[in-house]
Design goal:
Layout: E1 2-3, E2 12-13, H1 17-24, H2 33-41, E3 48-49, E4 55-56, H3 59-75, H4 79-87, E5 117-119, H5 120-127, H6 131-139, E6 146-148, E7 151-155, H7 156-169, H8 179-200, H9 205-238
Antiparallel strand pairs: 1-2, 3-4, 5-7, 6-7
Length: 241
């Protein structure tokens, strides 16, 4: 892969961010330049820059981006966990491309805050969701958002919630229809809190850290259990039972 840089520059190995979107469009139709820049801001991508500041992506960086996107799509991992996976040597070759039939593997669930935050306008650009839908999600308590320096925005998890609801909206699902998910999540969270409450309230840092790890593991198990129960019920619907 090569591209000519600014006038006077020698040819440099790599492709532009727009060409990256085009190269991955077939596997990730919703991928945008804003999404790639967001992943770069989160430290997951480090493209080389020309003297004029243009991003150039080589083969290794393209493979890294594919890995990040597959982990988000197929294993539902938050970026903090993906960063850990990547640091551990996870590669796109270890994640089979989804053919639409495979059951997603159970992924880790991170409950500790990441500190990442995205302004509302960037969220709309990133997810292609209408502002009216985001307002509806806030109205029904599906997302809450946070205002920083007078600018409304959302953390990493809520951005992914908005993205998921955007997919559902294509089938006519509105914010008011999501109360069942909100209620289910509240009940599951209350159950896990009841199980681990004493350890989570501990003043011993080590015990509290162990409790948070246990909470993440339990959240992963309950999430996967919910997925399996849903698959079972949907198969019954498909079979006319």
């Amino acid at each position: 892969m090569s591209i000519k840089g600014e006038k006077g520059d020698k040819r440099r190995e790599g492709i532009t961010i727009g060409e990256v979107c085009a190269a991955l469009e077939s596997e990730f139709p919703s991928l945008t330049i804003s999404k790639i820049r967001y992943l770069e801001d989160r430290g997951l991508l480090t493209p080389r820059r020309t003297a004029g500041g243009y991003r150039l992506y080589g083969k290794s960086e393209l493979a890294r981006l594919r890995t990040v996107l597959r982990l988000q799509r197929d294993e539902f991992l938050p970026l903090r966990v993906i960063r850990q996976e990547m640091a551990g040597g996870r590669s796109a070759e270890a994640i089979p491309a989804s053919n639409g039939d495979a059951v997603p593997r159970r992924g880790a669930t991170a409950v500790a805050g990441t500190g990442s935050w995205m302004p509302l306008q960037d969220v709309l650009d990133e997810t292609s969701v209408d502002a009216a839908l985001v307002s509806e999600l806030r109205e029904y308590g599906v997302v809450s958002g946070e205002t920083r320096d007078g600018v409304e925005g959302f953390d990493e998890t809520e951005v992914e919630i908005i993205r998921s609801v955007g997919e559902l909206a294509r089938y006519g699902v509105a914010g008011r229809n999501l109360s069942v998910f909100r209620s289910s999540a509240d009940r599951e969270a209350a159950l896990l809190q009841q199980i681990l409450a004493p350890a989570l309230r501990s003043r011993n840092p080590e015990r509290r850290a162990e409790a948070i790890e246990a909470l993440e593991n339990l959240a992963s198990v309950t999430s996967y259990l919910g997925h399996l129960l849903l698959v079972r019920d949907l198969r019954g619907i498909a079979d006319g039972r």
